[in-house]
Amino acid sequence: MPPITVVIFLLLVKLELGNCAKPNVLLIIVDDLKPSLRCFGDRNAYTPNIDRLSEKSFVFRNVFAQQALCAPSRNSLLTSRRPNSLHLYDFYSYWRSTVGNFTTIPQYFRENGYHTYSIGKVFHPGKSSNFTDDYPYSWSTPTFHPKTEQFMNSPVCVDQNGSLVKNLICPVIIESQPDGTLPDIESLNEAVRYLEYRRNATKPYFLAVGFHKPHVPFKFPFKYLDYHPIKNVSLPTNKDRPSSLPLVAWNPWTDIRLRHDIELLNVSFPFGPMPDHMSRKIIQAYNAATTYVDDLIGQLLVHVDPNTIVILTADHVCKPA
Ligand SMILES: *[C@@H]1O[C@H](CO)[C@@H](O)[C@H](O)[C@H]1NC(C)=O
Ligand SMILES: *[C@@H]1O[C@H](CO)[C@@H](O)[C@H](O)[C@H]1NC(C)=O
Ligand SMILES: *[C@@H]1O[C@H](CO)[C@@H](O)[C@H](O)[C@H]1NC(C)=O
Ligand SMILES: *[C@@H]1O[C@H](CO)[C@@H](O)[C@H](O)[C@H]1NC(C)=O
Ligand SMILES: *[C@@H]1O[C@H](CO)[C@@H](O)[C@H](O)[C@H]1NC(C)=O
Ligand SMILES: *[C@@H]1O[C@H](CO)[C@@H](O)[C@H](O)[C@H]1NC(C)=O
User: Fold this and answer.
1) Which residue has the higher pLDDT, 116 or 239?
2) Which fold has domain 9-152+178-221+289-314?
3) CA-proximal residue: ligand 3, atom 1 (nearest)
């Protein structure tokens, strides 16, 4: 495996841009995805659809996370401005009202004859995009958010005793979930509906689709575990905290400590190591959630018109193990 120092990555494909028509653009952003992908050399990964896309794409391996936080990283990427220029570092700042009325990438397409639409988490929702995902500047129509995302942190995971709890690791039966679906499946359906609806349109489109997984909690249909037998999961080689690490650089993962399955471990705060058996299960679940999103991306790409530029990226990721 070649040394990969990627921190953020991007796959870009141009499919048969034969005629003069302006190409459509499909931007896919996968929340908290790191390059745990076969095409980036991760042998624990099972990502056949992204691997296939990478074969006919430019694959960028030496690019960087704008910031290790969704909102400012996405605002940086989508305004093409570095965090140092934007001075935005949190979830609560909207660039138009705090720094400048900067044009975004989708807005630029919109102002140049494109129909633009956002599905799922593209801008970070909330204050950092003015509670509208920057509509109407960036998007031709109001944006779509999956209804079941409201259950993101609800107790919908079945524990060993059959009770519904709020777990970090949360494989589910889709039919038993609230509304009988999952957010990313709703987003896929909306994206397919949009692509079919735009098929005969004269205006080209810029469609952005933001998938929520593999962001925590790892909620995904059970079947994706089949691709990730626990005995195949290898632990990170560098799992110990360096003794000279400055405190400020330590993230004590306060979010996941509040999840039922992690609470049960009673890991000491702030440095207590995650037990190996749980580390394995977490890596397995992350990879299974990634396979789930890979499957949805495969289903989405079937509907993409040949005259389309496809870009696949993530918001902020770490080095592959
Ligand atoms: C910001 O830019 C948008 C789009 O170009 C424009 O419609 C709006 O008037 C601008 N707002 C300000 C305060 O300049
Ligand atoms: C943000 O939203 C508020 C409330 O809808 C609106 O009054 C304001 O003009 C928006 N900001 C910009 C820069 O468009
Ligand atoms: C199952 O129930 C037992 C007895 O109440 C409890 O000790 C145990 O922690 C529960 N297991 C889980 C995974 O919640
Ligand atoms: C697009 O055009 C084809 C062929 O004329 C037609 O069969 C199809 O129904 C049209 N689709 C839409 C969404 O209008
Ligand atoms: C698990 O590992 C075994 C032994 O290395 C390998 O033969 C098998 O294909 C792996 N299974 C999966 C699903 O990756
Ligand atoms: C959790 O760990 C602390 C020390 O780290 C210990 O005092 C406490 O008894 C433990 N609680 C349980 C339920 O094991």
Assistant:
1) 116
2) Alkaline Phosphatase, subunit A (3.40.720)
3) 161
